[in-house]
Design a protein that fits this description.
By secondary structure, this protein is of the alpha+beta class. 41% of the residues lie in helices and 20% in strands. The two termini are 75 Å apart. The model has no long low-confidence stretch (mean pLDDT 86).
Length: 343
């Protein structure tokens, strides 16, 4: 055994590559290797010598394997050093550009509005997309048979009691009910809404709404105007001007359309604003007394205002996108433009 170990050490000194090393390993530890063949001699030994012989043989195998593994590591290290020495890296060369994903522009708009309103003390609240007719319509002053329901083009799921929400206003109803007519409310509820609509450049059967609600005492329309001013200037710049126009919504009274000055022509009139100098971005108004009453708030003590934006609408205006369908495409040649516009 001692002689075999010395022979192995001598043979390993002349090994310079992994192929030669594998041949040496086979010579000593292969099925017919010199060390392996010693195992066949155990049966010829007296019983009192077998135990010691077996222990010495196992020790020999362990030492042989250790010597071979050490030689293999030395060869690999030498080869790596030679490779590093023969190769040079020009650190002045430009790096390889790896395409990276980014949030969808609609998502960016939603997060931007959320962060702004949270800084003003608003809570971000979520609610179910499969909603009850009671919350989606009736408690918002839209009883069954109301003509305004026809304009919603609702997806009904179970008779007329269960539906895909056509607006995020039901989240406002649920929040007011939780307030039990005793707590002031300041919240926004961004989320998906659904309506029966044909998809085209300006319409979609699914779109993102960002609705806000404030309920407190001594709230007036001027508070709504001030809030809208802050949002508009944050999204479209400090030079952005705003205005209200009278409108009608069943759940607000009075109701207004909210406009911003055209960012392209700065109010002079162009094709984007249809030569009016103004662009409509949302609907809003003071919460209707009936809605307050339905949700447990006494309209003689409590007032509130509500507003709602289409996230896609805001993004299209801010980034000059003229086709709403671009937000939902998976073609990177199209969606890659979002990053450039953001930059």
């Amino acid at each position: 055994m001692d002689n075999l170990l010395k022979e192995l050490e001598t043979d390993l000194k002349s090994v310079t590559n992994e192929q030669s090393l594998n041949e040496i390993k086979t010579k000593y530890l292969g099925k017919k290797g010199s060390i392996t063949e010693l195992s066949s001699k155990i049966k010829d030994l007296p019983n009192e010598e077998k135990k010691e012989f077996g222990a010495n043989l196992n020790k020999l195998k362990t030492e042989a394997n250790n010597l071979i593994d050490a030689k293999k590591e030395a060869i690999e290290t030498e080869n790596l050093n030679k490779k590093l020495a023969s190769e040079s890296i020009d650190i002045s060369l430009p790096s390889t550009k790896i395409p990276m994903g980014s949030p969808n522009i609609v998502e960016k708009i939603v997060e931007e509005v959320e962060e702004l309103l949270m800084s003003m003390g608003y809570d971000v609240v979520d609610g179910p997309e499969v909603e009850k007719d009671e919350y989606n319509f009736e408690m918002l002053n839209l009883p069954k048979g109301h003509p305004a329901r026809d304009a919603q083009d609702t997806f009904y799921l179970k008779g007329e009691e269960l539906l895909l929400r056509s607006q995020t206003s039901p989240v406002q109803v649920r929040t007011m009910l939780e307030g039990k007519g005793e707590k002031p409310i300041r919240m926004i509820c961004p989320g998906k809404t659904y309506r029966r609509d044909n998809d085209d450049a300006t319409h979609s059967h699914q779109f993102m709404q960002i609705e806000g609600l404030l309920v407190d005492k001594n709230v007036s329309l001027s508070d709504l105007k001030g809030t809208f001013d802050v949002i508009a200037k944050h999204l479209f710049g400090e030079t952005c001007e705003t205005r209200f126009r009278p409108s009608y919504y069943p759940f607000t009274e009075p109701s207004v359309e909210t406009d911003i000055s055209c960012h392209a022509c700065h109010g002079k009139g162009c094709s984007i604003c249809k030569n009016t100098g103004w662009i409509t971005v949302s609907g809003a108004g003071m919460v209707h007394p009936d809605v307050l009453r339905n949700c447990g708030y006494d309209p003689k003590e409590w007032q509130g205002f509500a507003f709602g934006f289409g996230a896609e609408r805001l993004a299209m205006i801010k980034y000059g996108i003229d086709d709403l369908r671009a937000f939902y495409m998976t073609d990177l040649r199209e969606t890659g433009n979002f990053d450039r516009k953001e930059a």
